[in-house]
């Protein structure tokens, strides 16, 4: 037989359980507990920021850097074609097999944060095209633009030391693969006038205080500069600033912007 109300014994047990539940004191929230929860939340936020800064953000920044450099290159080419309407435009992506070379034009030193060139390194991929600007400060050049030129050092193609700096991690990390360069790899500096081709020679690791790498002849004091060098500097090891990694290259040739197109040095490497 069904009953609408529970048996007496069951009803008594339920009432006693309810009484015990009501009598149970509420847990007090301590100051230490609140601080602990805040610290955990802050830790999660910091972790998410690190993930963004070192991986997700880097991918986005890197793509932006390459897109900006490619756009600048295209703009220079379009301006040249407008000034030379009779010239036949080179096939997109093509590079000349026998580049026409000429004496490198002398460039004025750029101001702090002033863009003046685009770096291309076939070893780093065909899409690698990073803007270069004057100065090596983080707020004006290295973080927002990419590659910075040490003030007072030479400009591309000129005898002496053309010295540069860029991040190896974060902010698009333009020099992330600097240790992957092979002897003889082309490092091409594209400007409005044409392409300056350098060839990589060697790597060196130095202390942050080793300013001798910026001398006209790197690491050699009071030596007359008869060769055009390029010095690329970045932090070492990864995610630290204990040392500096330095890549040295030697100038090979200047290819003026003509209907022949970019130099053969921009061809992909295996």
TrEMBL record:
Active-site annotation: 167, 235
Entry-linked CDD domains: Sortase_E (cd05830)
Keywords from the UniProt entry: Hydrolase, Membrane, Transmembrane, Transmembrane helix
TM ranges: 29-52
InterPro entries hit by this protein: Sortase, Sortase_Class_E, Sortase_dom-sf, Sortase_E
Region of interest (Disordered), ranges: 72-112
Composition bias type Low complexity, residue spans: 72-89
GO MF terms, alphabetically ordered: hydrolase activity
The protein's name: Sortase A
Lineage: Bacteria, Bacillati, Actinomycetota, Actinomycetes, Micrococcales
